[in-house]
């Protein structure tokens, strides 16, 4: 049973300078909720009860956020309905969160490797909080279902536009079941002309513990960093890898425009602020 997730958050977040000089990106808000909380809620709804946050050495404000009077603050969240609040408190009380410091920002693969001593031999999930998915059924819950059905690792995929291709992991696939694909090629941040498709890896993974062994043999790749994608290629060749083309709406909140779009999307659903905001937005559209 998969009950453990890693959430790496130590990236440098240069696209959010100047605010990221002092505030970790994971705490930047979508409306009034830090992006990392979306990952934690999705994890909880997917059956995860143990979370390891891999953070930078100067990011202890993330730990403080969840520990210092957190519930008192949550209770003041004006837009929460009573049942939502109870649900949220249940989430916070049911998950064991621990914090691991990644001393140097050597890449996503390196960040994930920091969790090796705490994982053991079981498969686990990875959430990148930059990728926020609004969906009826939590994306990770579906992915764990696919993992249980095929006993193979799974990653989330989505078609992206050409300008995004050199910024992401890109895969080539064979479709064999509705929304489920066999991954046959992976490449991290390819030049457009070298990309095998327009299907990108989105930040949700179900991985076997053998990924740690692969990561130890991976050389620095794209951007001179230890890339998780390069470690996954070994697993794909040895055992196979599935891709899940998830339903719902995805935002890349790792850049200011995506964060703003996710906030706009979130507020339209907000019982207190939604209607007034939509009226204002309409009044701005010429
Ligand atoms: C990471 C992964 C990449 C994936 C992306 C999704 O890249 O390395 O394969 O497509 O997340 O958000 P990063 O955003 O760390 O550059």
Which short descriptors sum up this protein?
single chain, two-stranded antiparallel ribbon, binds 1-O-phosphono-alpha-D-glucopyranose, 24% strand, 286 residues, five-stranded mixed β-barrel, globular, alpha/beta, Spore Coat Polysaccharide Biosynthesis Protein SpsA, Chain A
Description of the structure:
The protein is of the alpha/beta class and 286 residues long. It has one domain (4-273): Spore Coat Polysaccharide Biosynthesis Protein SpsA, Chain A. The protein is 35% helix and 24% strand. The chain is built from 11 helices and 13 strands. It has helices at 35-45, 60-67, 70-75, 82-94, 108-113, 116-119, 139-150, 211-217, 228-238, 256-267, 274-284; strands at 4-8, 29-30, 33-34, 50-55, 96-101, 124-127, 131-134, 154-159, 169-177, 180-188, 199-207, 242-245, 249-252. It has a 5-stranded mixed barrel with strand order 8-11-9-10-12. Strands 2-3 form a two-stranded antiparallel sheet. It has a two-stranded antiparallel sheet with strand order 7-13. A hairpin with a 2-residue loop joins strand 9 (169-177) and strand 10 (180-188). Helix 8 (211-217) packs across helix 9. The longest helix is centred in the first third of the chain and has 13 residues, at 82-94. The radius of gyration is 19 Å and the shape is globular. Bound molecules: 1-O-phosphono-alpha-D-glucopyranose.
